Amino acid sequence: MALKYSRQREAIWQFLRDRTDHPTADAIYTGVRMTCPGISLGTVYRNLMLMQDLGKIRTVSVGDGTVHFDPNLAPHDHFVCSVCGKIFDMPPADLSSLRESLRESAESGNLPGHIEGYTACFHGVCNGCTDRNSSRT
Description:
Elements: H1 7-16, H2 25-32, H3 41-53, E1 58-61, E2 67-70, E3 77-81, E4 87-90, H4 96-107, E5 121-124, H5 127-136
Parallel strand pairs: 3-5
Antiparallel strand pairs: 1-2, 3-4
Helix pairs in contact: 1-2, 2-3
């Protein structure tokens, strides 16, 4: 499907495309307003959902009740700092033994359905917060 050019959509993409901080729609809206002062939050949401549907970005849920947006479509997991709340990309974990266990559970009928994919989100304290905390003691 060919989309008609949209200056607002392009501004959203320019703001998001090189980011690694997984911003929320509100953060994207605030950032894009600097270059597109007339843009509405609804327009940002609609364009983010369109970009997701087109496979340009993906949504990330890290358990904080907020949807975050990620332009990095390469396979990777996420690490969430429980102190500062930052979300970091990390290499995909080797979950081969877990996948094998789930395959065996599926074959024995112990799963409620067929697994088509997964996301992994690890929680802990980032190096920056660990360093700040250790420098205070």
